[in-house]
Automatic annotation (TrEMBL):
Pfam families: DUF805 (PF05656). This is DUF805 domain-containing protein. GO terms for cellular component: membrane. InterPro entries: DUF805 (IPR008523). It comes from the Bacteria. Keywords: Membrane, Transmembrane, Transmembrane helix. It comes from Caulobacter radicis. The chain crosses the membrane at residues 12-31, 58-78, 85-104. The lineage of its organism: Bacteria, Pseudomonadati, Pseudomonadota, Alphaproteobacteria, Caulobacterales.
Length: 131
């Protein structure tokens, strides 16, 4: 699982997120349903981006689990109006989180997840030498 190790820069992150969002939009327009695999791609891109910020990738996993619990199980436990309000908040919070990951500069020096990624687009995460 080399994709979940190392670090990627902001440009690479935005390219991955942009392609995933286009895939979601095209799938929603053509097939009348969004493409769940694109969300997984964004999750996979978030992990090395978090590494570039010096954070563990488990933060992305926690957000993903919370969203899945909300989308697939929340309607059974929460009254309908409260569930709609909660979904609305989630729809507003997710773009903020994506923007924060893509907007915050990574650490300039080596960190626990490896050396800084190269400038520009890079499709291969920079993996620590001991991995």
């Amino acid at each position: 699982m080399q994709l979940l190790k190392g670090r990627i820069n902001r440009a690479s992150y935005w390219l991955i997120v942009g392609v995933a969002l286009v895939a979601i939009l095209v799938s929603a327009l053509v097939f009348q349903r969004p493409l769940p695999a694109a969300l997984v791609v964004m999750l996979i891109a978030a992990v090395p981006r978090l590494h570039d910020l010096g954070r563990t990738g488990w933060w992305a996993g926690g957000v993903f689990i919370a969203l899945m619990a909300l989308f697939f199980g929340g309607g059974f436990v929460i009254p309908p109006q409260a569930y709609q309000n909660t979904l609305g908040v989630a729809v507003l919070v997710l773009p903020v989180l994506l923007s924060a990951l893509g907007g915050l500069p990574g650490q300039a020096a080596d960190n626990a997840f490896g050396p800084p990624p190269p400038k520009g687009l890079s499709f291969k995460p920079v993996v620590p030498t001991g991995a």
